[in-house]
Amino acid sequence: MRTTGAANAVSVLIIEDDDVIGRHLEAGLRGNGYAVNWTRTGGSALAEARRLPVDVALLDLGLPDMDGIDVARQLRDEFPDLLILILTARSEEIDVIVGLDAGADDYLVKPFSLTVLLARLRAHLRRRPAGPVAPSEPVRIGDLTVDIAARRCRLGDREVELRPKEFELLAALAQHPGEAVSRESLMAWVWDENWFGPTKTLDVTMSSLRRRLHAATAASTAPLVLPGFTTLRGHGYRLDPPASVPPGEGNSPSG
Questions:
Q1: If I label 160, which of 35, 48, 166, 169 is the partner at 20 to 30 A Cα–Cα?
Q2: Which band of pLDDT confidence, cut at 50, 70 and 90, is reported for residue 192?
Q3: How far is CA 117 from the centre of its chain?
Q4: pTM of this prediction?
Q5: Residue 89's pLDDT band (boundaries 50, 70, 90)?
Q6: Residue 207: partners with Cβ closer than 8 Å, 6 or more residues away
Q7: Long-range contacts of 62-66 (CB under 8 A, 24+ apart)
Q8: Is-cis flag, bond preceding 80, omega within 30?
Q9: Integer Cα distance of 89 and 36 in angstroms
Q10: Residue 60: count of CB within 10 angstroms of its CB
Q11: d(CA 136, CA 171)
């Protein structure tokens, strides 16, 4: 593993076993002001992420010791705020969906332009708050409480762990209960107005959010009232307060 770049710059961990690609990424990122750590295996990447402060992970899926999808899952579980961009030759839609569902924030198919990679990094990093978020009152809908300032979600008195994009999607909908929110608005709020990737990631994240909330509801010993997530075909989604959910709609854990 090697480290290059300015000490106070955004820290990027390259996880790539191809020397040519690794050197190209290292030089390009360093030349644009990023601090770069480069490692060639999944195991060493996890070790470096635990040892060093890392802001961004550029993750190849075809690693010699473990599948990159497993690395993405472990990174996301251990570092909820880490920005993960998958870089891979796998281009099938199912591969993109699996990668995003594993916790990646974006997905680039090789060969890709360094210019495009840098643009995506800038777009994602612009979304990150530069300072403390202004406090706001928690939003309560049924037994679901969304504390946007503290980035916490509770069902009853029990906290529910959500991935960053799941929480941001929930927060976006919770601020507009009972209102139809378009796909375009959700993509702009949660992923960035300059998002380059497939909008299918919105549906994947919604399905994952539903599963987590329904699992938490099922695990509770006390009866809980969960709001409904209604899919509006051809438009977007709506978060329905419990009393307004039509029978059989919106509360299904599937997309």
A1: 48
A2: low
A3: 17
A4: 0.53
A5: confident
A6: 253, 254, 255
A7: 62/17, 62/88, 62/89, 62/90, 63/15, 63/17, 64/17, 64/40, 65/41, 66/41, 66/42
A8: no
A9: 22
A10: 23
A11: 12
Both tokens of residue 20?
Answer: 């040519």
Kindly tell me if the per-residue pLDDT of 248 is higher than 50: no
Band of the pLDDT at 136, cuts 50, 70, 90?
Answer: low
CA distance 67 to 42: 8
d(CA 85, CA 44): 18
> Are the C-beta atoms of 168 and 190 separated by less than 8 Å?
yes
pLDDT at 198: 57
Q: Check residue 47 and give its pLDDT.
A: 93
pLDDT tens, position by position, 10-43: 899 999 999 999 999 999 999 888 989 999 999 9
Instruction: Quick: pLDDT tens for 173-183.
Output: 988 888 888 88
